[in-house]
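Forwarding the complex inputs:
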Amino acid sequence: AQTVTQSQPEMSVQEAETVTLSCTYDTSESDYYLFWYKQPPSRQMILVIRQEAYKQQNATENRFSVNFQKAAKSFSLKISDSQLGDAAMYFCVRLSNFGNEKLTFGTGTRLTIIP
Amino acid sequence: DTEVTQTPKHLVMGMTNKKSLKCEQHMGHRAMYWYKQKAKKPPELMFVYSYEKLSINESVPSRFSPECPNSSLLNLHLHALQPEDSALYLCASSPRAAGIGQNYGYTFGSGTRLTVV
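Prediction (whole assembly, two chains):
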Protein backbone atom coordinates (compact mmCIF):
# COMPACT_ATOMS: atom_id res chain seq x y z
CA ALA A 1 0.00 0.00 0.00
CA GLN A 2 1.22 3.47 -0.81
CA THR A 3 0.84 5.20 2.52
CA VAL A 4 1.30 8.68 3.94
CA THR A 5 2.65 8.87 7.49
CA GLN A 6 2.34 11.76 9.90
CA SER A 7 4.20 10.77 13.02
CA GLN A 8 3.07 13.71 15.18
CA PRO A 9 -0.58 13.30 16.23
CA GLU A 10 -0.47 16.61 18.10
CA MET A 11 1.77 19.67 18.08
CA SER A 12 1.63 22.99 19.84
CA VAL A 13 3.40 26.26 19.19
CA GLN A 14 3.53 29.66 20.79
CA GLU A 15 1.87 32.41 18.81
CA ALA A 16 4.35 34.16 16.46
CA GLU A 17 6.76 31.24 16.63
CA THR A 18 7.65 28.72 13.91
CA VAL A 19 6.54 25.11 13.80
CA THR A 20 7.31 22.23 11.44
CA LEU A 21 4.93 19.37 10.75
CA SER A 22 6.42 16.13 9.45
CA CYS A 23 5.20 13.88 6.67
CA THR A 24 6.70 10.88 4.91
CA TYR A 25 5.13 8.86 2.16
CA ASP A 26 5.60 5.72 0.20
CA THR A 27 5.33 5.59 -3.57
CA SER A 28 6.81 3.78 -6.53
CA GLU A 29 5.90 6.58 -8.92
CA SER A 30 8.19 9.31 -10.14
CA ASP A 31 5.51 11.91 -10.72
CA TYR A 32 2.80 12.83 -8.26
CA TYR A 33 1.35 15.74 -6.29
CA LEU A 34 1.67 16.44 -2.59
CA PHE A 35 -0.60 18.73 -0.61
CA TRP A 36 -1.06 20.03 2.87
CA TYR A 37 -4.68 20.60 3.81
CA LYS A 38 -5.91 22.14 7.03
CA GLN A 39 -9.25 21.36 8.64
CA PRO A 40 -10.27 23.83 11.34
CA PRO A 41 -13.24 23.21 13.66
CA SER A 42 -15.44 24.69 10.93
CA ARG A 43 -14.83 21.33 9.21
CA GLN A 44 -13.95 22.63 5.76
CA MET A 45 -10.81 21.13 4.28
CA ILE A 46 -8.68 24.03 3.04
CA LEU A 47 -5.71 23.71 0.70
CA VAL A 48 -2.63 25.20 2.32
CA ILE A 49 0.09 24.41 -0.18
CA ARG A 50 0.82 22.07 -3.10
CA GLN A 51 4.02 20.56 -4.49
CA GLU A 52 4.49 18.84 -7.81
CA ALA A 53 7.03 16.05 -7.47
CA TYR A 54 8.86 16.88 -10.69
CA LYS A 55 9.62 20.38 -9.41
CA GLN A 56 12.74 20.56 -7.28
CA GLN A 57 11.96 23.99 -5.89
CA ASN A 58 10.15 23.95 -2.59
CA ALA A 59 6.69 25.54 -2.68
CA THR A 60 5.92 28.58 -0.55
CA GLU A 61 2.66 30.39 0.21
CA ASN A 62 3.13 33.42 2.42
CA ARG A 63 3.90 32.07 5.93
CA PHE A 64 3.72 28.45 4.77
CA SER A 65 6.58 26.61 3.11
CA VAL A 66 7.54 23.02 2.52
CA ASN A 67 10.76 21.06 2.64
CA PHE A 68 10.35 18.49 -0.12
CA GLN A 69 12.98 15.77 -0.13
CA LYS A 70 12.02 13.49 -3.01
CA ALA A 71 14.69 10.86 -2.49
CA ALA A 72 13.83 10.59 1.18
CA LYS A 73 10.09 10.76 0.41
CA SER A 74 9.66 13.50 2.94
CA PHE A 75 7.34 16.51 2.76
CA SER A 76 7.36 18.69 5.87
CA LEU A 77 5.34 21.88 6.37
CA LYS A 78 6.82 24.91 8.08
CA ILE A 79 4.50 27.55 9.47
CA SER A 80 6.21 30.82 10.31
CA ASP A 81 4.83 33.54 12.58
CA SER A 82 2.07 31.21 13.82
CA GLN A 83 -1.33 32.82 14.28
CA LEU A 84 -4.37 31.76 16.29
CA GLY A 85 -6.21 31.10 13.05
CA ASP A 86 -3.66 28.42 12.15
CA ALA A 87 -5.10 26.11 14.80
CA ALA A 88 -6.49 23.10 12.93
CA MET A 89 -5.95 19.50 11.95
CA TYR A 90 -3.34 19.35 9.19
CA PHE A 91 -3.38 16.52 6.68
CA CYS A 92 -0.52 15.58 4.39
CA VAL A 93 -1.98 14.23 1.16
CA ARG A 94 -0.58 12.53 -1.91
CA LEU A 95 -2.14 12.25 -5.34
CA SER A 96 -0.92 9.96 -8.06
CA ASN A 97 -0.38 11.70 -11.38
CA PHE A 98 -1.71 8.67 -13.19
CA GLY A 99 -5.31 9.59 -13.13
CA ASN A 100 -7.09 7.44 -10.60
CA GLU A 101 -8.05 10.56 -8.67
CA LYS A 102 -7.60 8.92 -5.30
CA LEU A 103 -6.11 11.10 -2.63
CA THR A 104 -4.08 9.29 0.01
CA PHE A 105 -4.37 11.07 3.34
CA GLY A 106 -2.06 10.92 6.31
CA THR A 107 -3.59 10.45 9.74
CA GLY A 108 -3.32 14.15 10.53
CA THR A 109 -1.54 16.40 13.03
CA ARG A 110 -3.61 18.54 15.36
CA LEU A 111 -1.92 21.91 15.77
CA THR A 112 -2.66 24.06 18.79
CA ILE A 113 -1.58 27.69 18.96
CA ILE A 114 -0.74 28.97 22.43
CA PRO A 115 -1.53 32.68 22.88
CA ASP B 1 -17.37 31.42 -7.48
CA THR B 2 -14.61 29.31 -5.93
CA GLU B 3 -16.68 27.29 -3.52
CA VAL B 4 -18.21 23.89 -3.12
CA THR B 5 -21.57 24.27 -1.40
CA GLN B 6 -23.07 21.41 0.58
CA THR B 7 -26.57 21.19 1.99
CA PRO B 8 -27.80 20.53 4.56
CA LYS B 9 -25.07 21.31 7.09
CA HIS B 10 -26.62 19.00 9.67
CA LEU B 11 -28.97 16.06 9.24
CA VAL B 12 -30.54 13.70 11.73
CA MET B 13 -32.36 10.73 10.26
CA GLY B 14 -33.92 7.51 11.43
CA MET B 15 -32.83 4.15 10.13
CA THR B 16 -35.97 3.84 8.00
CA ASN B 17 -35.76 7.29 6.46
CA LYS B 18 -34.72 8.33 2.97
CA LYS B 19 -32.76 11.53 2.66
CA SER B 20 -30.38 13.18 0.20
CA LEU B 21 -27.23 15.22 0.51
CA LYS B 22 -26.54 17.85 -2.09
CA CYS B 23 -23.30 19.29 -3.40
CA GLU B 24 -22.89 22.09 -5.93
CA GLN B 25 -19.94 23.80 -7.60
CA HIS B 26 -19.72 26.40 -10.36
CA MET B 27 -16.00 26.34 -11.01
CA GLY B 28 -16.28 24.23 -14.14
CA HIS B 29 -14.65 21.30 -12.39
CA ARG B 30 -15.26 18.00 -14.16
CA ALA B 31 -14.50 15.62 -11.31
CA MET B 32 -16.57 15.43 -8.13
CA TYR B 33 -16.16 13.27 -5.05
CA TRP B 34 -17.88 12.04 -1.93
CA TYR B 35 -15.81 11.40 1.17
CA LYS B 36 -16.83 10.06 4.58
CA GLN B 37 -14.98 11.29 7.65
CA LYS B 38 -15.29 9.84 11.13
CA ALA B 39 -14.19 11.85 14.14
CA LYS B 40 -10.43 12.37 14.43
CA LYS B 41 -9.80 10.38 11.25
CA PRO B 42 -8.83 11.39 7.72
CA PRO B 43 -11.51 11.39 5.04
CA GLU B 44 -12.21 8.13 3.24
CA LEU B 45 -13.11 8.15 -0.42
CA MET B 46 -16.56 6.81 -1.30
CA PHE B 47 -17.27 7.78 -4.92
CA VAL B 48 -15.67 9.62 -7.82
CA TYR B 49 -17.55 11.09 -10.75
CA SER B 50 -15.54 12.06 -13.80
CA TYR B 51 -17.33 13.95 -16.55
CA GLU B 52 -20.65 13.06 -14.89
CA LYS B 53 -19.94 9.33 -15.01
CA LEU B 54 -19.24 7.20 -11.96
CA SER B 55 -15.59 6.22 -12.22
CA ILE B 56 -14.79 4.93 -8.74
CA ASN B 57 -16.99 3.22 -6.16
CA GLU B 58 -14.93 2.21 -3.14
CA SER B 59 -17.13 -0.79 -2.36
CA VAL B 60 -19.66 1.43 -0.64
CA PRO B 61 -22.85 -0.30 0.64
CA SER B 62 -25.86 0.11 -1.61
CA ARG B 63 -27.69 2.09 1.05
CA PHE B 64 -25.59 4.98 -0.28
CA SER B 65 -26.54 5.89 -3.84
CA PRO B 66 -24.71 8.68 -5.67
CA GLU B 67 -26.09 10.69 -8.53
CA CYS B 68 -24.55 13.32 -10.79
CA PRO B 69 -27.39 15.03 -12.72
CA ASN B 70 -25.02 17.52 -14.37
CA SER B 71 -21.47 18.77 -14.19
CA SER B 72 -22.25 21.18 -11.33
CA LEU B 73 -24.34 19.01 -9.09
CA LEU B 74 -23.69 15.87 -7.05
CA ASN B 75 -26.18 14.13 -4.82
CA LEU B 76 -25.86 11.33 -2.30
CA HIS B 77 -29.10 9.47 -1.64
CA LEU B 78 -29.37 7.75 1.72
CA HIS B 79 -31.70 4.91 2.60
CA ALA B 80 -31.89 2.48 5.52
CA LEU B 81 -28.71 3.74 7.11
CA GLN B 82 -27.17 2.32 10.26
CA PRO B 83 -25.97 4.24 13.32
CA GLU B 84 -22.37 3.50 12.31
CA ASP B 85 -22.95 5.57 9.16
CA SER B 86 -23.05 8.67 11.34
CA ALA B 87 -20.15 10.85 10.15
CA LEU B 88 -19.18 14.01 8.34
CA TYR B 89 -19.81 13.67 4.60
CA LEU B 90 -17.56 15.84 2.49
CA CYS B 91 -17.98 16.71 -1.14
CA ALA B 92 -15.04 17.84 -3.24
CA SER B 93 -14.32 18.82 -6.81
CA SER B 94 -11.23 19.12 -8.98
CA PRO B 95 -10.57 20.62 -12.39
CA ARG B 96 -10.34 17.35 -14.27
CA ALA B 97 -9.83 13.71 -13.82
CA ALA B 98 -7.18 11.52 -15.45
CA GLY B 99 -4.90 14.40 -16.17
CA ILE B 100 -3.26 16.97 -14.00
CA GLY B 101 -2.14 20.42 -14.93
CA GLN B 102 -0.69 23.34 -13.11
CA ASN B 103 -2.23 24.58 -9.90
CA TYR B 104 -4.05 21.33 -9.52
CA GLY B 105 -5.98 20.86 -6.30
CA TYR B 106 -9.17 19.73 -4.74
CA THR B 107 -11.79 22.11 -3.39
CA PHE B 108 -13.80 20.75 -0.50
CA GLY B 109 -17.17 21.74 0.86
CA SER B 110 -17.75 22.25 4.57
CA GLY B 111 -19.60 18.97 4.83
CA THR B 112 -22.87 17.56 6.12
CA ARG B 113 -22.81 16.27 9.68
CA LEU B 114 -25.04 13.19 9.54
CA THR B 115 -26.45 11.50 12.62
CA VAL B 116 -28.39 8.25 12.22
CA VAL B 117 -30.66 7.41 15.15
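Chain B has a mean pLDDT of 91.
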